[in-house]
């Protein structure tokens, strides 16, 4: 079974005390205006929903 570790605590699917995403799977998307090659500006979680 896949485990998605995530520390985005503003997301409704985040379980901050476990550092986990509660979803079975997620969609990872490219950020808009990327091309920097830096991880923090190239990818983001497309399944994020504000808590
Ligand atoms: S949906 Fe994405 S941002 Fe939200 S907890 Fe899961 S992995 Fe983290």
What does this structure look like?
This protein has 51 residues and is mostly beta strands. The chain has one domain (1-51). 8% of the residues lie in helices and 20% in strands. The chain is built from 1 helix and 4 strands. The chain has one helix at residues 39-42; strands at 14-15, 20-21, 28-30, 43-45. The strands form 2 sheets. It has a two-stranded antiparallel sheet with strand order 1-2. A two-stranded antiparallel ribbon has the order 3-4. The relative contact order is 0.32. Iron/sulfur cluster is lined by residues 4, 6, 8, 11, 13-14, 21, 23, 26, 45, 47-48.
Structure at a glance:
The chain has one helix at residues 39-42; strands at 14-15, 20-21, 28-30, 43-45. The chain has 51 residues and is mainly beta.
Per DSSP E runs of 2 or more residues, the count of β-strands stands at 4
What is the N-to-C order of secondary-structure elements (H for helix, E for strand)? Answer: EEEHE
Largest beta-sheet details:
2 strands, antiparallel
Poorly predicted regions are: none
Give the N-terminus to C-terminus distance in angstroms: 25 Å
**Overall shape:** elongated
The radius of gyration is 12 Å
Q: Calculate the mean pLDDT score and round it.
A: 94
Q: How much helix is in the residues?
A: under 10%
What hetero molecules are in the model?
iron/sulfur cluster
Number of domains: 1
